[in-house]
């Protein structure tokens, strides 16, 4: 049985059917809402992997990056199509359980596994809340260059606008 410790290895795993034929690759994992263990995965099938079919993990075995399921390739491809990007309704979930003839949904529900999900303390920042600051030290032999526009006599009608370049503390002027 595949448990919650193996969820990260599921995504992108090659899926083989009962006879060893390639069915596709794992797209997403769906967890049991009560215990958090993976119960279903979507398998990308078809020429470009555009179609995703739900497959139960009951009786499946994960060995490295290969997921072996107990269903045939045709069974997976003929499964009822559900949108993996939206939440499954109880009717859709029941239809999948009936199609694969596995235990009932029991009304517990499935939830999509979020790869970014992590347990956070109350005072811990989320990754998207942390400021991203990139500073790079100036390599030896390189200089800092600062250019700015200076306005002289701002109160007069005859204002002079000039560009000033500061090159590592050495001020140079270029009249514009």
Task: Describe what is shown at a glance.
The chain has 176 residues and is mostly beta strands. It has two domains: 4-115, Photosynthetic Reaction Center, subunit H, domain 2 (Photosynthetic Reaction Center, Chain H, domain 2), CATH 3.90.50.10; 145-175, no CATH class.
What would you note in describing this structure?
With 176 residues, this protein is mainly β. It folds into 2 domains: 4-115, Photosynthetic Reaction Center, subunit H, domain 2 (Photosynthetic Reaction Center, Chain H, domain 2); 145-175, no CATH class. Helix content is 11%, strand content 34%. The protein has helices spanning 7-10, 73-77, 90-100; strands spanning 14-16, 22-32, 38-45, 51-56, 61-63, 66-68, 110-112, 145-152, 160-167, 170-175. The strands form 2 sheets. Strands 1, 2, 3, 4, 5, 6 and 7 form a 7-stranded mixed β-sheet that branches. It starts with 6 loop residues before the first helix and ends with a strand.
Structural class: mainly beta
Q: Could you tell me the strand content as a percent range?
A: 25-35%
Query: Can you identify the CATH class of the largest domain?
Result: Alpha Beta
Helix content: 10-25%
Number of helices: 3
Total strand segments: 10
